[in-house]
Amino acid sequence: MDHWTHPLTWGLLGAMAGAIGNRSTRMLATSSDDTGLYSAGTGALMTAILFGALGWQTSSTENLVLVSCLVVVATPLAVIDMVEMRLPNPLLAAGYLGVGTCAVTAAAAHGEYTWLGRAAVGCAVMIAVYLGLALCTGGLGSGDVRLGGLLGMTSAWVGWPVLVASTILGWVMLLSVFRLGAVERGEEVPAGPSLLGGTLIAVLGSGG
After folding, report:
1. pLDDT tens digits, one per residue of 14-23
2. Contact at 8 Å (CB) between 14 and 51?
């Protein structure tokens, strides 16, 4: 029973966080398109599923709470990026604040700052990489660069292999969308949902 209680309880918490968090989606959204994606039910369901999966797979309480902070903003970020092709700064700032606070608190509680340093380096490296790509190719926006730093911080906290895997998975997912014909149709493709998906898949696959 205990094996099921933890993910179910965490999933219920995720449903509540998602329903509340999707208020941010509606407040920050400027488009009336696909308003169903902005509903509290959508946010609750998606966040509950991700929280439950994290509760099932993640062995470390510190990692569970830290990655959950990313999940809370992941759904509204992905929805707004899909509909409006932008990543609102308030949501990104909330993600940085939540993940960063968890990282600092966990490091201080254990007196072990190796993981914190790794998270900081991962954040800086991914910002530099994505900024370079944005300047060289023009294919990424400033929001994507800031998101890259947040994802780098989160995945590097879990481990260097997770950072590498999350980056590869995110870009494979993004390139797969291009392969589906979006480029031929002349459509722009939001990078945020794929990059977020790659990070969450990598973290879940690592077992945390």
Report:
1. 888 887 766 6
2. yes
Angle at 141 between CA 136 and CA 146, to 5 degrees: 105
* Phi-psi sector, 3: left (phi>0), alpha (psi -120 to 50), beta: alpha
If you average pLDDT over residues 108-112, what whole number do you get? 88
| Residue 136 or 1, more confident | 136
Number of domains the chain is built from: 1
pLDDT at 9 exceeding the cut of 60? yes
Between CA 197 and CA 192 the distance in angstroms is: 8
Report the distance separating Cα 109 and Cα 103, nearest Å. Answer: 10
Report pTM.
Answer: 0.88
